[in-house]
Design a protein that fits this description.
Layout (H helix, E strand, L loop, with lengths): L1 H16 L5 E10 L11 E2 L1 E15 L4 E6 L4 E6 L10 H15 L6 E8 L9 H16 L6 H16 L6 H8 L4 E6 L5 E5 L5 E11 L3 H22 L11 H6 L1 H4 L1 H26 L2 H17 L6 H10 L5 E7 L4 E9 L3 H16 L4 E5 L6 E4 L2 E3 L1
Parallel strand pairs: 4-6
Antiparallel strand pairs: 1-3, 1-13, 2-7, 3-6, 4-5, 7-8, 9-11, 9-12, 10-11, 13-14
Helix pairs in contact: 2-3, 2-4, 3-4, 3-5, 4-5, 6-9, 9-10, 11-12
């Protein structure tokens, strides 16, 4: 699949620019084993890069001030002058890239002309963070080709800033961090407050990770996401007014939360309750993965889905149905919604010998109830952003 993606992107570049690309870069999507919506609340998350990528074919254009993108999958192009300050445009995919350029320009870094074509095997809108791969992939390219001397951490932060400023989504840092820092067969336990992180081996021998794509993305994704942020911010304000000595949100206890329940209101209470529970689950999940305790990992996944559905309220009928039915199947250890919510994918931990039966049964049930063809993605934990050259990766 990887070679096919590279060849497709190369052909797109040749067709668009009538030239040969000089570089190829692969920027992965990500899964999150545990820690949904806690990355903007001082929490720990447990993401990993996966073997689905955006491939960029790139050529530096000397003595040029123009950077041109060709998005193969959209059959759309955009050019801008690298000496000028950029503002958001009507093409959403372009804003992820312009935001990266803007953040780098604000740091006083200079770049020159480029020709870029890109294509992807990361399903759009399914919660696998194609946006972070696009942002951080472009940041990585600029850093590499123009010797900007930016660290991996800076690249992740630039990607996040792009989404905040040019796309208007107040995302946390997890998606960008996973795309940049991913390692094969390892998950990242990331402290979203300090950005300190450590790797844990993902021992799931005898089991597979499958993503079931609901193929729905409800229109209130962005507004719903920002509404949840506001609900949480309101809850935090009340907590810190009552307990000003607490430094980090994750250090509030459940008893503290109960003390201010009436004052913050039921909605903010439920949001904060979910977050504190989820932060606690992340470290347990990291330990379970490293020890190969797939039974306990699966139980934690089930608890997370319940919280996302009933406390944080970012699920939907389609995903609740999908998870509930999947958990009835033989060999399923865990299942839950993954990503921002309001559609997208469920992530499922399934014993290898049961995978095909589960896919067949859930696909049929989902189609019968919702008249939608569910998509299935088998994923493996992979490396972060890399240059691809002569059939080998270059860090």
């Amino acid at each position: 699949m990887q070679e096919k993606l590279i060849n497709r992107t190369k052909e797109a570049f040749q067709s668009k620019y009538n030239a040969e690309p000089k570089h190829f870069f692969l920027a992965p999507g990500r899964i999150n084993m545990m820690g949904e919506h806690v990355d903007y609340s001082d929490g720990f998350v447990l993401p990993a890069a996966i073997d689905k990528h955006i491939c960029f074919a790139v050529k530096k254009v000397d003595d040029s001030e123009i950077c041109t993108f060709f998005a193969k999958d959209f059959d759309d192009s955009f050019s801008f002058n690298v000496t000028q300050k950029q503002t958001p445009v009507s093409q959403t995919w372009v804003n992820y890239l312009l935001g990266v350029f803007n953040a780098i320009q604000e740091r006083g870094k200079k770049i020159g002309g480029l020709e870029i074509a890109f294509s992807s095997t990361i399903p759009m809108g399914s919660g696998l963070s194609s946006s972070a791969a696009l942002e951080c992939g472009f940041a990585y390219i600029l850093n590499h080709i123009f010797d900007l001397d930016l660290t991996k951490k800076e690249l992740a932060l630039i990607g996040q800033k792009s989404e905040h400023t040019f796309v208007g989504v107040k995302c946390g840092i997890m998606d960008q961090f996973a795309s940049v820092f991913g390692k094969e067969r390892q998950v990242i336990l990331l402290d979203c407050n300090s950005l300190e992180h450590q790797y844990f081996e993902a021992h799931i021998d005898g089991c597979s990770l499958l993503l079931f794509d609901s193929c729905v993305k409800h229109t209130h994704l962005t507004s719903g996401y920002n509404d949840r942020r506001n609900d949480v911010d309101n809850g935090k304000k009340v907590l810190w007014e009552k307990f000003p000595d607490i430094e980090k949100f994750r250090d509030f206890s459940f008893s503290m939360l109960d003390e201010v329940r009436a004052e913050m209101g039921e909605t903010s209470y439920k949001r904060c309750l979910y977050l504190l529970k989820e932060i606690n689950r992340v470290e347990k999940a990291a330990k379970a993965l490293s020890e190969g305790d797939v039974q306990y990992l699966g139980q934690l996944m089930i608890e997370t889905h319940s919280g996302l559905s009933t406390e944080f309220e970012v699920s939907c009928d389609e995903l609740d149905f999908m998870v509930e039915e999947t958990l009835k199947e033989n060999g399923v250890l865990g299942a839950r919604i993954m990503g921002g919510g309001f559609g997208g994918c469920s992530i499922n931990l399934i014993k290898d010998e049961n995978v095909n039966d589960v896919i067949e049964n859930i696909t049929a049930k989902y189609k019968a109830d919702f008249a939608i063809e569910m998509k299935v993605y088998r994923v493996k934990i992979s490396d972060g952003i890399r240059e691809y050259k002569r059939n080998e990766f270059v860090v």
